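re: ur question from earlier - yeah i can do the single chain one, its not a big deal. heres the input i used so u can compare w yours
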Amino acid sequence: MLIAVVGTSGLGRVAGVLSGSPAALLRVVADRPDTDVVVLTSGHARASAQRQADLVAAARPSARVSVITSPHHALTLTVVADRVLAAAPWLSSADDLRGLLLTELSRARSLVWSPAAWRLRGVDLGVGARLRSLVGGRNPVLDIAPATDIGPDGWLPAAGDRVYTTGPLPAPLTHRLDGHHPQRVTTLVEDSRFASGSAWLLTSVPFGPVTGTGSTDPGAATPEPPAARPRPAAVDRESEAA
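and the output i got, formated as tokens:
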């Protein structure tokens, strides 16, 4: 079985589907035409995911492709997929894999921070928070999913939270994380809502093993820097709400 995420370059055994390559999923499936493929996509990229899934269905009808559309951003989808594959390599049922992915996504948080939070699209920032960002330079860490009212100070990490990001963090964000040191993972994330260089995506998951796997592993995603290894390309099809 294969998991592919739309909007990233992949991570470990997770395949990436970047927007600049309309046949990325098809290229991955070409090497394994009879496999089950689960595609994870954020809502804003659902149309692209569906087009790629339809292309695979037409060109490789023996490949069984399903799409899970989620409110999470692509970094969270990638981290969760990597954790699930690492914790449950024995999974052989696509239904079980989808169920485990949905359970883990329900426990994760997709976050974003920007030094100009008032400019961010796709986040619900109240008038007071916009003013604090614009005038006072106070920029909270914001929830993308689940969308919750987290107060004027934004999201703050709880004891035991595992936080992931893709690169070095600016000093103001490091200060806001209050001593938490995010684990860096190596993947390229595309998200048209958050321009590169002006926003930092983060993922938070609770400490502990992946639910239902019986694993004693604390659930770390593939760390940076990974050894050079072959990485699949991409995948797609129908849609299930996460």
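DSSP finds six helices and eleven strands in the chain. not sure if urs matches, ping me
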